[in-house]
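Records of this kind hold a single protein each, on a pair of labelled lines. With that in mind, the following record should read easily:
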Amino acid sequence: MSKPDTVAPSHFLRTIVRDDLESGKYAKIATRFPPEPNGYLHVGHAKSICLNFGLADEFGGTCNLRFDDTNPEKESEEYVRSIKEDVNWLGFQWDGDVRFSSNYFDELHAYAIELINKGLAYVCELNAEEMREYRGTLKQPGKNSPYRDRSVEENLDLFNRMTAGEFDEGTKVLRAKIDMSAPNINLRDPVMYRIRKVSHHQTGDKWCVYPSYDFTHGQSDALEGITHSICTLEFEDHKPLYNWFIENLDVPAQPIQYEFSRLNINYTVMSKRKLAQLVESNIVNGWDDPRMPTISGLRRRGYTPASLRNFCEMIGVTRSDSMVDVGMLEYAIRDDLDKNAARAMAVLDPLKVTISNFPEGEVEMLTAAGHPNRDDMAERQIPFTKTVYIDRADFREEANKKYKRLVTGGEVRLRYGYCVRADEVIKDENGEIVELICSYDPDTLGKKPEGRKIRGVIHWVSATHGEQAEVRVYDRLFNVEQPDREEGGYEAHINPESLVVKQAYIEPGLKLANNEERFQFEREGYFVADRHDHSAEKPVFNKVIGLRDSWAKIEGA
């Protein structure tokens, strides 16, 4: 895996790991990335992936990929496949086989029986509403369940019958016996097992009771010998419960939980539930829609693994919640593609230009750089013909001196080619410009004409040799900074211009681009051959990002 260009900045977790190794507390560190397979991963998960796998890689440790699959009703094999693919695509490889918390259901069940035998767990029959009532509030302590003082024998019998499927869903749960007056509500006799008579994507119909996330997570860490259990700050209040289970069970290791701030980015939402709603309501075209902040969406948009890794390094790791400007993410990909994307020309809003004094049927091959600063990228040949397309925005019938493109009677240089002058404008019956008649100066290839003012340089594509392509111009999905905090909810603030489809003309060589190959369309921005839809027969390109931050200009206007 290629490393970021800069030296990785230190942060508190790097310091903790380094100190633990130098002190001899651990001979080797072991981390894990433990997603729930209930949706596609988003860029916030990329931060966690880079952190967990990155620390293990940096300090010679191991990192497991473990699916915390305790909620089979919302989980699926599709999500498992997509997560594995995302981790690999980002440039990481987990240690050994993929793991599942469901691999440990037998051990977890035995741990539950261990707590019952120690008098630290009991079967409770309060319904959900009663459970909330007995739990208390942040200001008021809870009260003990009337089932809390059952004997060990009775609890063992009831739990075994729960496991055998004798009871209906919702009638009984297994709870840890901790402290109903604890200031931390997570310690008020939390649920360890629920009855769920549903099939599991890994274990099939073996179980009809499933462990809670809080009961599963720490014990799975312990069973895997994890040293540093790294999670986001919302789990900080769960840490005492994580430790309570570890301390009261005969587990093979003593993992320690550390928390860091989750990633929040403006102009998007970072909740799997909300992203799922966007998919289900057809606001976007699936989890990998290029407007989505999912890793697969960013990949299809044209982001590179290196750009996401560098972004995660740039934003750092702290314990302070903050909002990251999406411009930092956009900078990361723009910087990567500026250095690494081959150049090409494409006209997104074509206006036909006929060059009156160029011979009919003749084709002249012009030479263009593959990249202005990369000798390893081969030059390309561009056909110059009697008819070409320029972008409609590059011509005005009249304009002031500040307009550096083509005007009637004025001259511009066609990129890599000749200077042309606009001699005549042809319009349709509605007064719309449909064609320009221009003349070219055959002595201006690679030369600056003397005594004449050339307004600027514009891009173009041969009308007869260029290829038609579908170009999907993507922009930010939301038009407000914090869409889920605005009146009307996030769905009321969808950017209506987040996808504009154009029928463009491209250099002929672009049709042979590989899927996911990225280019700078000169003067237009960075584009990628669509991961799924692009083919030589039907070229499809997605806009990754513009050449510069146009949003900043708008906001500062």
User: Anything to note?
Assistant: The chain has 13 helices and 27 strands.
